[in-house]
Amino acid sequence: MTCVRLFRVQIAAGAALGAAALGTPAAAADMAVKSPAISAVYSWTGFYVGGHIGYGDGSLGPGTNPLPEQSVFLPSTITGGVGGFQAGYNRQFANRFVLGVEADATFTAPVDLPRRALAPFNSSIDYVGTVRGRIGYAFGTWMPYLTGGFAWGHSEVRVNDATGNVLSEPGQYQTGWTAGAGAEFAVGGHWTAKLEYDYIDLSRRTMGLADFGMPSVTIDPRIHLLKFGLNYQLGDAPWSATPTQSVLPESNDWNLHGQTTFIGQGYPAFRSPYAGTDSLPGGGQVQQTWTTTAFLGVRFWEGGEFYFNAETAQGFGLNGTLGIAGFPNGEAQKAGAEYPKIRPQRYYFKQTFGFGGEQEDVADGPNQLAGKRDIDRLTVIVGRFAVGDFFDGNSYAKDPRADFMNWAMWSSAAYDFPADLPGYTRGAVVEFNRKDWAVRAGLFQVPNAPNSDTLVFSTGGAVVEFEGRYAIFDQPGKLRVGVFGNRGNTGNYNQALAIEGADPALDINAVMAGIRKDNLKYGFYINAEQQIATDVGLFGRLSWNDGQTEILSFTDIDRSVSGGVSVKGSYWGRPNDTIGIGGAINGLSAAHRDFLAAGGLGLLIGDGALNYRNEGIFETYYAYQVNKNLTMTADYQFIANPAYNADRGPAHIFSGRVHGEF
Fold first, then answer.
1. 234: which strand partners?
2. CA of 231: how far to CAs of 133, 252, 630, in Å?
3. Helix (H) or strand (E) holding 9
4. What mean pLDDT is predicted for residues 6-35?
């Protein structure tokens, strides 16, 4: 049944990727339209595709113990923040009435764990879909409308044990109807924006829980959704080289980009004489992940910009992202989901203060508005983002959606950067830039415990990075050096070992949880990149942390060295293809390895015993660009001593990646 569900979700992924593969002028639009002529009269006729975000609430019926789901600034509800995709067609008539049809899918937010009430079971709604008619009246460039039609959704019941751990998650599909109203506005180029309310009423269905010693539960969804959406108008003949859709003048003060990435990953059986709670299973496994992201940027005034990224994530890393310290899939989140879950992963304000003098061009791109900026400048960023958005960058090994996938290859792996489960935090960054160097510093929230999704400012993390730019024989290079420190609610390895040693009957993981307090972890990283010829570059990283207390956010690595080479395909007539070859060696402090050997569990690893060796990683990939919007990648990774255990492995991991940019 799980395979069927995943297949249905992957159909949606294929539709998104298919838009990139078409390569038509409309489907391959880069979200930055080139100053078309203004139509004399705006017409709503044509096909469109788009996305939406919003907020929802409602009821699943009495006695259903609904899970609270996250929302950034609003109360948690049965849906929390929502988001999804839509596509449709409108026909405008001479009397200004507009008839249309639209299909959409709306996904809910992850569970708000701190607000979850412990119960024998909890119910939830995973997603809703609709196929609706629309009738509107065109007032030029804006159109109010009514909408209604068929609706369906998927609900789920999570059966819990006494401590709240999930034992089973039976689900069911439910059908019904929907009605609503909205208004849509042309905002520039081929883009329209809409605000819409939908009421969704799904059929009542009863789910039996007799196998778990509980009575049946009746799920009766009644859902209210308020959605803000953006649509790209494709025109009446999107397959034509001359689209017929009316367009408005472009604005350089906002942009929208998108990406979707699907990664399938698996490995055959390997030597595994024993396994622990967090071990990579020795029998082999196949998993997949899929993310889709919208990047919205708005310029408020000169130098003042706001960026918002909504992202859906679905799927699981191998073994639920457990079993290897240098994990092989950079898209795998620690909080995987069977169905897509929506989060506002980034929302931050950026203010740039120019000091005059020489300027540089800024290309249009995701989280980057086109224009010019002073080379000598001060930039301040405040909001939610990933630490890696601004620190530890590298031209050849940084983006698991485009280059190396392994965590130890695209990051300084011993830097335990502050992050929640998907890898983001809130905080502030200040950067001072000159032509040949830059210095930047950041202060961030940290999780309230290891592997927690709750960020707090009662403690915090900080990093300072220096970046030098230079040339050797006219070949450019960069060197980045960073120092970091985090204060978080963690336990000390040696202290836990001493307590457990005095009373071997104690469970060392329970001991560790009991001694957590405000502790400091500190370290450094060195990150270098060097072009050695046109389209050929080398990279390397060295990182270290003190290794005395638990890892808080990233992965179980206390020291790491990595490096490799990246070559563009211009040498064999494929200038936009890339081949990468690299490797990493990860290690642990003595205290950390003793803790694991005693049965301790880390963030990602824990075999119950440990015959310690450094974890070794080799990775190579070939990225084949189908067209400017679609790239397909084949990737192979060899993992020696997975989770630092010479008794297990090696593992051979094979991956396929499909990445679309719009």
1. none
2. 17, 18, 21
3. helix 2-22
4. 41
